[in-house]
Amino acid sequence: MYPANRTLNRQIQQVLYMLKRQYGGTVSVYRLNDAETDVRTGRKWIDKDVFVVRRAIVLPVKISRAVVKSIAQISVGKTPVHGGSFDSGLRQFIIDARDLPGNFEFTNDDWLVYNGRRYEIKEIHEFEFGAAWIIVGKELMGRVPEQVHLVAADSLIGLNAGASNQ
Predict the structure, then answer these.
(1) Residues whose CB falls within 8 Å of the CB of residue 1, separated by 6 or more in sequence, listed in order
(2) Closest CA to 118 of 138, 92, 134
(3) CB of 131 within 8 A of CB of 97?
(4) Nearest 10 degrees: Cα torsion 10, 13, 15, 18
(5) Which residues contact 69 (CB under 8 A, 6 or more apart)?
(6) With 0-12 CB in 10 A as exposed, 13-18 as middle and 19+ as buried, what is 158?
(7) DSSP string, 67-83
């Protein structure tokens, strides 16, 4: 945040806070660091980071059907050939900059997962003063998100406790 505009910064933060309370949802931001494939075994190794945003502003999805036409259908004098169609959804996310690490910058190679659905980043808009980002995500219906689930094991076993095979 820029110190010269403290009043404006405070107003932006208050509006973001109110929107997060009304339209907040948990969104995971994924960043692909590296990917390798072993050519002998065919096994893939993927290194990615996950940043969980507990309260991102999630706006309603706009679903549309896209039709892909072949050149034969477009050309004059050809017999009609049907193209393919698929459903996709566009959704806007507003993510507060305070919910991510300080030096975080979105790239078009990142993706979001919300409600078990994967959204490829189509557009990135940055708020004034680095306060937040508006992310336009495109979902292809039926695509598996390949999520990373964080698992924690908590236990109340003391250091002097023992276990037996019975």
Answers:
(1) 9, 129, 130, 131
(2) 138
(3) yes
(4) -130
(5) 83
(6) exposed
(7) EE--HHHHSTTSPP---
Under DSSP, is residue 106 helix (H, G, I), strand (E, B) or coil?
coil
Identify each DSSP E strand in 3-144 by its residue range. 24-37, 44-58, 62-68, 84-96, 111-114, 117-126, 132-140
What is the per-residue pLDDT across 81-115, written as a single tens digit (0 to 9) for each? 555 665 678 899 999 999 999 889 999 989 999 98
Domains of the chain from N-terminus onward: 3-35+43-140 (2.40.10)
Burial-class residue 159 by CB neighbours within 10 Å (0-12, 13-18, 19+): exposed
The answer to whether 134 and 19 have CB atoms below 8 angstroms apart is no
Rounded distance between C-alpha atoms, residue 13 and residue 96, angstroms = 8
Which tens digits make up the pLDDT trace of 14-66? Answer: 999 999 999 899 999 999 888 888 888 888 888 888 999 999 999 988 777 66
What's the CA dihedral at 99, 2, 129, 58 to 10 degrees? 20
Q: Which residue has the tokens 């477009």?
A: 74
User: Closest Cα partner for 16 from 45, 72, 73, 57?
Assistant: 57
